[in-house]
C-alpha cells in the first residue's frame, strides 16, 4: 500500500469534465500501487514546473532481446523513489486489436503483480503498453507473458510491431486480408523484431483500402494499402434509395470525384473505371450501393516517417498493384532486398525514406532490382541536373562521327 | 536446503497470439463476407454480411492511459453485452462487438455511467491520438494526456454527435519526434522546444559518443570541441532548429526548458485518399504557452479552428480540402490567426511552398 496520499491540486482539476480522465485512472491505480502514487506526485510536479522529469539512456530489456523495453528513470528519485525505475514494456498486440475479456483479465493480473497497474491501450505503433516497472521485474513479467502466449514488440532500430486495420474481420472494403498479412509478417520477422540490427526503425502498416485507417502512408516505412483493378460494383437500385433519402448525388458524390469519371442521370450511376483513381469517396458516401471491384490486392508504398531527422515524408508508390496471398513470397523477396540494401548503405538513424532521398530513388530502385515506372512519380523531374552514368567512349553506329 | 528447481524452457520469439482466438463467432463465420455497413446513430454501427448476419459495434471514448481496473471493467461489460468480445481502434477507442441489437442501448447506458461517452464515428471528432508527454517521456515539450483531456472536454459534443461537415482528426505529439501521425492530421497539436541544447559536459563525457552526437545534427549545429582540455561538443546556436535529435542520441544535450517550451498548432493534413491525396498538416499557430492544468490558449485555439471550419466547409470537405478551396489568406482572415514570419518555410526546398502564381482573391 502507498504510504501517503499526496496533494495534487493541479491534476485534480483534470478529474472534472465529460471526457474520460487519465488522472482518475492513475488515482485508481495509486490506491493499490506505490509506483502509480509516485507517478501522480511527479506528474503534479511537472504541472507546477512545466517540465518533464524523466531520464532516458542505459540499456534495459529481457535476456536475448534488444527491443521491447523502453528504459525510463525519474530525475527526482529521492522524492519519488517508487518511480526511480519506470520502464515501459511493449507487448505485441493481436492483429486488429481484438481481445476476449478472459485474456484481458489475465494480462491485467500479470501487470498487477509486476508493474504499476497502468497501461496504454494502445501505444502509437500499436503495441499494448505496460507503463512502468523496475528492471528486476522485466524477466518475471516476460515469463508470465510468454506463458500466456504473448511476446514483446519492437523498439529501437528493429522491425517495429506491425499493425493493421480490422480488415476482413469487420469491413466490406478490405481488399486483402490485413490481419493475416500482419500476423504473417510479425512471425516471419521475429528475429528482426526482437534484435535491432538496422540503421533505424522499420515500420510495416497494413490498411485494407485507400481510406487508410492506420495511417500507413504517413507513418510506415512500408505502407501496404489495399486497392483493386477492375470495376467498382454498382447497385443502382440502392443508389436510387440514397437519392430518395435526400442525398445530393450530383453535388456530393459525383461533384467530389477527383477523376471526374462518374455520371448520374437520376436513375443510374455510370463510371468510367479506366479513369477511376480508387479514392473511395463515392463508396464511402454510399456503402450500400457501391463497392470496390473483385480483382483486389494492394499498392505497396515506401518511405513514410515523422520529421526526425531531415523532415517528414509520406510514402510513395513502389509497386502499384500486387496480389497478397499466402505464402507472400513476392512481398518477402522485395522486403528482404530492401533491407539488404538499406542495412548495407544506410547511415545511423537514417530511415529508409531518408536513405532514398540521399541516394536517389532511381539508384535505390536499381539496387533493389525494381524497374522505374511513371506510377512512382507525381511528375518527372523539373530540373536538368541528371547524373548520367553512361556515355560513349568512341564512335559507333549509334553515335557516328559528325 | 534450497529446493532445486527443475530447469524450465525459456520461451522467446513466439510472437503475438493468433488473432483468430479473439474473434467472436459471428466474425469467424462472416470473415471477408461483409457486404455493407451503416451508422445507426453516433457511435453505433451495424455491419451486414452477405449471409444476412448483423454485427453491431458500439464505440466508446477512452483516455488511452488506462488502469487495469478499467480494463477489467471493460471485460465485465464485454461479458455482459458482447459474449466477452471487444476490440480497440487505431484511435484508442474501445469497441464492443454485439450480435444482439437489443443490448446496444443498455450497453451505452452503462458506458455512460462509467464515464465513457459513445461516439466518434462518421462526421465527428474521434479520440485524439497522442503521445506520452510528462507522464512518461524524456523529451516532451508539453504534456500529452492533460492537453488532450482539456481539448476533448471542450469538444466532447462533436464526439457524441455527428454534426460536422466531414471527419475531423486531431492528434497530439509532445515533441518533434512525433510518435503519432500528427503531421497528417486535420488539426495537430505539437509540443515544441525553442532553445538550443545545453551541453552537460560531465554527463556527456560519461554517457555519449561524440561522433554520434555530432552526426545526429541535421543542420551541423553540433561540432566537436575540446573544452578545458576535455573532448566535448559545442553548439552553434543560430543553426539549431530545436529538433532534439542530439538529445535522443545523448541525454547530456538537454533541451527541455520550462520558460520556452510550448505548443504549436498545425492544420489541414489527412491520410485518407478519399477525394484528395494525403496531405501534410501546415503551420497555423507557431507558439502557444504551456499553461497547465487546462491549457486554455490551446483549447481555445482548437475550438476556434473547429468552429470556423464547421461553419464554412462544404459537406465531406476535410480541413485541408476546405483551406485549399478558399486559400490561405482567407483561412487566416476567417480564423483571426495572425500570419507571421514563422509561417514561411525556410528549411529544404522551402521555395516550393511560396505562392508562384497570381491566382489570388482580392
Describe this structure in words.
The complex is a heterodimer of chains A (402) and B (362). Helices cover 32% and strands 14% of the residues of chain A. The radius of gyration of chain A is 26 Å and the shape is globular. The N and C termini of chain A lie far apart (93 Å). In chain A, strand 6 (118-121) and strand 7 (128-131) form a beta hairpin. Chain A is built from 14 helices and 16 strands. Chain B has 362 residues and is α+β, with helices and mostly antiparallel strands. Chain B has 10 helices and 15 strands. Chains A and B meet through helix 1, helix 2, helix 3, strand 1 and strand 5 of A and strand 1, strand 4, helix 2, strand 5 and helix 4 of B. Strand 5 of chain A pairs antiparallel with strand 5 (85-88) of chain B, so a sheet runs across the interface.
Number of helices of chain B: 10
Number of distinct helices of chain A: 14
Multimeric organization = heterodimer
Largest interface: A-B, 127 and 115 residues
- What is the strand content of chain A? 5-15%
Shape of chain B: globular
Cα-atom radius of gyration of chain B: 25 Å
Number of strands of chain A: 16
Parts with pLDDT < 50 across at least 5 consecutive residues of chain B: none
Spatial strand order of the main sheet of chain A: 8-9-10-15-16
Global structural class of chain A: alpha+beta
Question: Order of strands across the widest beta sheet of chain B?
Answer: 1-2-3-6-5
Q: Encode the helix/strand succession of chain A as letters.
A: HHHEEEEEHEEHEHHEHEEHHEEHEEEHHH
> Unreliable runs of chain A, pLDDT <50, ≥5 residues?
none
Shape descriptor of chain A:
globular
Instruction: Describe the sheet with the most strands of chain A.
Output: 5 strands, mixed
Residues in helix, % of chain A: 25-40%
Instruction: Please count the beta strands of chain B (DSSP E, at least 2 residues each).
Output: 15
Amino acid at each position: 500500500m502507498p504510504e501517503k496520499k499526496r496533494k495534487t491540486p493541479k491534476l485534480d482539476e483534470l478529474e472534472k469534465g465529460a471526457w474520460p480522465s487519465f488522472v482518475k485512472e492513475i488515482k485508481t491505480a495509486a490506491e493499490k500501487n506505490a509506483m502509480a502514487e509516485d507517478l501522480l506526485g511527479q506528474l503534479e510536479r511537472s504541472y507546477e514546473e512545466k517540465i518533464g522529469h524523466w531520464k532516458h539512456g542505459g540499456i534495459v530489456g529481457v535476456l536475448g532481446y534488444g527491443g521491447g523495453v523502453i528504459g525510463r528513470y525519474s530525475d527526482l528519485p529521492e522524492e519519488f523513489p517508487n518511480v526511480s525505475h519506470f520502464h515501459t514494456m511493449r507487448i505485441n498486440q493481436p492483429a486488429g486489436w481484438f481481445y476476449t475479456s478472459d485474456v484481458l483479465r489475465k494480462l491485467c493480473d500479470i501487470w498487477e503483480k509486476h508493474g504499476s497497474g497502468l497501461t496504454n491501450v494502445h501505444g502509437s505503433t500499436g503495441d499494448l503498453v505496460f507503463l512502468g516497472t523496475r528492471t528486476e521485474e522485466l524477466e518475471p513479467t516476460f515469463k508470465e507473458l510468454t506463458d500466456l502466449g504473448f511476446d514483446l514488440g519492437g523498439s529501437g532500430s528493429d522491425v517495429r510491431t506491425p499493425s493493421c486495420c480490422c480488415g476482413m474481420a469487420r469491413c466490406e472494403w478490405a481488399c486483402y486480408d490485413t490481419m493475416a498479412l500482419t500476423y504473417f509478417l510479425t512471425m516471419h520477422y521475429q528475429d528482426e523484431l526482437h534484435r535491432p540490427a538496422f540503421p533505424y526503425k522499420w515500420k510495416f502498416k497494413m490498411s485494407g483500402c485507400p481510406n487508410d485507417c492506420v495511417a500507413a502512408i504517413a507513418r510506415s516505412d512500408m505502407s501496404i494499402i489495399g486497392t483493386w483493378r477492375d470495376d467498382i460494383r454498382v447497385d443502382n437500385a440502392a443508389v436510387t434509395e440514397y437519392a430518395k433519402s435526400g442525398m445530393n448525388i450530383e453535388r456530393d458524390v459525383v461533384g467530389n470525384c477527383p477523376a471526374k469519371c462518374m455520371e448520374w442521370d437520376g436513375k443510374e450511376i455510370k463510371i468510367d473505371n479506366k479513369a477511376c483513381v480508387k479514392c473511395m469517396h463515392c463508396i464511402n458516401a454510399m456503402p450500400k450501393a457501391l463497392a470496390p471491384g473483385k480483382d483486389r490486392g494492394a499498392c505497396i508504398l515506401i518511405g513514410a516517417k515523422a520529421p526526425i531527422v531531415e523532415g517528414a515524408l509520406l510514402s510513395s508508390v513502389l509497386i502499384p498493384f500486387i496480389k497478397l496471398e499466402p505464402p507472400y513470397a513476392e512481398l518477402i523477396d522485395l522486403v528482404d532486398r530492401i533491407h539488404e540494401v538499406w542495412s548495407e548503405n544506410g547511415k545511423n538513424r537514417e530511415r529508409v525514406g531518408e536513405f532514398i532521398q540521399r541516394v536517389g530513388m532511381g539508384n535505390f530502385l536499381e539496387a533493389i532490382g525494381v524497374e522505374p515506372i511513371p506510377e512512382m512519380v507525381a511528375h518527372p523531374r523539373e530540373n536538368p541536373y541528371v547524373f548520367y552514368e553512361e556515355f560513349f567512349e568512341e564512335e559507333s553506329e549509334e553515335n557516328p562521327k559528325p | 536446503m534450497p529446493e532445486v528447481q527443475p530447469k524450465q524452457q525459456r520461451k522467446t520469439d513466439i510472437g503475438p497470439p493468433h488473432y483468430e482466438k479473439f474473434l467472436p463467432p459471428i466474425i469467424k463465420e462472416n470473415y471477408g463476407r461483409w457486404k455493407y455497413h451503416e451508422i445507426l446513430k453516433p457511435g453505433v454501427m451495424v455491419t451486414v454480411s452477405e449471409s444476412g448476419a448483423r454485427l453491431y459495434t458500439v464505440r466508446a471514448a477512452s483516455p488511452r492511459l488506462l488502469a487495469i481496473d478499467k480494463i477489467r471493467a471493460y471485460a465485465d461489460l464485454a461479458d455482459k453485452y458482447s459474449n466477452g468480445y471487444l476490440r480497440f481502434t487505431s484511435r484508442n477507442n474501445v469497441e464492443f462487438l454485439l450480435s444482439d441489437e437489443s443490448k446496444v442501448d443498455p450497453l451505452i447506458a452503462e458506458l455512460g455511467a462509467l464515464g465513457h461517452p459513445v461516439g466518434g464515428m462518421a462526421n465527428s471528432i474521434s479520440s485524439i491520438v497522442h503521445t506520452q508527454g510528462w507522464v512518461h517521456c524524456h523529451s516532451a515539450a508539453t504534456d500529452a494526456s492533460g492537453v488532450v483531456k482539456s481539448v476533448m472536454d471542450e469538444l466532447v459534443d462533436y464526439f457524441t454527435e455527428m454534426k460536422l461537415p466531414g471527419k475531423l482528426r486531431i492528434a497530439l505529439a509532445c515533441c518533434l519526434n512525433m510518435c503519432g501521425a500528427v503531421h497528417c492530421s486535420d488539426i495537430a497539436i505539437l509540443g515544441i522546444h525553442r532553445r538550443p541544447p545545453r551541453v552537460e559536459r560531465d554527463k556527456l563525457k560519461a554517457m555519449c559518443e561524440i561522433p554520434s552526437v555530432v552526426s545526429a545534427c541535421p543542420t551541423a549545429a553540433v561540432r566537436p570541441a575540446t573544452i578545458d582540455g576535455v573532448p566535448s561538443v559545442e553548439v552553434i546556436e543560430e543553426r539549431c532548429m530545436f529538433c532534439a535529435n542530439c538529445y535522443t542520441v545523448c541525454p547530456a544535450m538537454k533541451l527541455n526548458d520550462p520558460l520556452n517550451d510550448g505548443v504549436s498548432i498545425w492544420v489541414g493534413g489527412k491520410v485518407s485518399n478519399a477525394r484528395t491525396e494525403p496531405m501534410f498538416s501546415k503551420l497555423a499557430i507557431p507558439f502557444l504557452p504551456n499553461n497547465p492544468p487546462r491549457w486554455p490558449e490551446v483549447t481555445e485555439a482548437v475550438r476556434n479552428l473547429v468552429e470556423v471550419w464547421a461553419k464554412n466547409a462544404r459537406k465531406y470537405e476535410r480541413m485541408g480540402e476546405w483551406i485549399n478551396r478558399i486559400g490561405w489568406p482567407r483561412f487566416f482572415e476567417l480564423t483571426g490567426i495572425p500570419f507571421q514570419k514563422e509561417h514561411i518555410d525556410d528549411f529544404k526546398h522551402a521555395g516550393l511552398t511560396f505562392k508562384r502564381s497570381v491566382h489570388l482573391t482580392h
